[in-house]
Amino acid sequence: MMIVALNDAITVTDLALTAYERALEPKRLVTIPGGHFDPYLGQFSKSSAAALAWFKEHLA
Q1: What's the pTM?
Q2: Residue 50: which residues within 8 A CB-CB, separation 6 or more?
Q3: pLDDT tens string for the chain (60 positions)?
Q4: Which helix (H) or strand (E) element contains residue 13?
Q5: Is 31 helix (H, G, I), strand (E, B) or coil?
Q6: Distance of CA 27 to CAs 12, 17, 20, 37, Å?
Q7: Burial status of residue 4 (CB atoms within 10 A of its CB: 0-12, 13-18, 19 or more)
Q8: Helix and strand element counts for the chain (H, E)
Q9: 28 phi and psi angles, rounded to 5 deg
């Protein structure tokens, strides 16, 4: 599970997407508009819902 901000200048978006492509299954990609902190601030409901669904599916 990777949640990637599309305009991230700290964890550079293109490198994150390349890492995702190389990852083995099971995997899931969620993209969030904005920068590095937007998954925690402005887009928290989307990013946390995606993470929670992943954890319920794979850890429960």
Answers
A1: 0.88
A2: 1, 3, 28, 30
A3: 999 999 999 999 999 999 999 999 999 999 999 999 999 999 999 999 999 999 999 998
A4: helix 13-22
A5: strand
A6: 19, 12, 8, 22
A7: buried
A8: 2, 2
A9: -150, 140
Taking residue 5's Cβ as centre, other Cβ atoms within 10 Å add up to 23
Q: What would the two tokens of residue 34 be?
A: 């904005």
- The SS3 assignment for 29 reads strand
Give me the pLDDT at residue 60, please.
Answer: 85
Retrieve residue 10's tokens.
């700290």
Q: Is 58 exposed, middle or buried (0-12, 13-18, 19+ CB in 10 A)?
A: exposed
Structure tokens at 27: 């995997």
Q: Show the beta-strand stretches assigned E in 1-60.
A: 2-5, 29-32
